[in-house]
Design brief:
Layout lengths: L4 E7 L4 H11 L5 E8 L5 H8 L4 E3 L8 H14 L4 E4 L8 H7 L3 E5 L11 H8 L3 E8 L9 E8 L6 H24 L3 E4 L2 E4 L4
Helix pairs in contact: 1-6, 3-4
The structure holds 5-O-phosphono-beta-D-ribofuranosylamine.
Length: 206
């Protein structure tokens, strides 16, 4: 893999995971460069974080496209122009469709605030609380056709405490998300993630 790893981050909102990636790069804990941050929402706070770090931003609003494929083709154009190695979804609130998957299969990661395959989809933290789980956490995975179904790269567990509400549990999980996402990108940049069917083998460092 050419160094530094060229990353694109796709966002829709707050961007705390984006910030964790920015911080890790600035601290030289991650040998990567964020080539572009793409948001489907013009008011996403993630865009402010990117601009502050001097990263190019692009707003591609999904709602102005009649067909989802056309929206995705526009994203692909930007990703290709930047010769991106890895696409990181970080609070990107859309299901990735076939056009992007075809171009970047095995090179798209997502972070999810639960221990998959439990509680996929929206409001994962609330799902875990409502279910009465005693443990939850986060999952970094490669993206496939399904919703949060792709091969798992890293999982970190956190306890669900007696008096947790959605905010306290989300906060405890988020802290781990930031570490897990950076670690997964680092492993990818070191060429240490080997996709074998639906399993991801982490090979040892050279
Ligand atoms: C995170 O909880 C992430 O796991 C989920 O959406 C949230 C995004 O948060 N996919 P942020 O925008 O990175 O702060």
């Amino acid at each position: 893999m050419a160094k530094p790893l060229k990353i694109a981050v796709l966002v829709s909102g707050r961007g705390s995971n984006l910030q964790a990636i920015i911080d890790a790069i600035q601290k030289q804990a991650l040998d990567a460069k964020i080539e572009v941050v793409i948001s489907n929402k013009p008011d996403a706070f993630a865009l402010e974080r990117a601009k502050k770090a001097g990263i190019e931003v692009l707003v591609i609003e999904d709602k102005i496209f009649k067909a989802k494929d056309d929206y995705e083709k526009e994203i692909i154009k930007a990703l290709k122009a930047k010769k991106v190695d890895l696409v990181c979804l970080a609070g990107y609130m859309k299901i990735v469709g076939h056009p992007i998957l075809r171009e970047f299969k095995g090179r798209i990661m997502n972070i999810h605030p639960a221990l998959l395959p439990s509680f996929p989809g929206l409001h994962a933290q609330k799902q875990a609380l409502d279910y009465g789980s005693k443990v939850s956490g986060c999952t970094v995975h490669f993206v496939d056709e399904g919703t949060d179904t792709g091969p798992i790269i890293i999982q970190t567990s956190v306890p669900v405490l007696e008096h947790d509400d959605c905010d306290t549990l989300s906060e405890r999980i988020l802290e781990q998300e930031h570490k897990a996402y950076v670690e997964a990108i680092k492993l990818f940049s070191e060429g240490r993630l080997k996709l074998m069917g639906r399993k991801v083998q982490i090979t040892s460092a050279h």
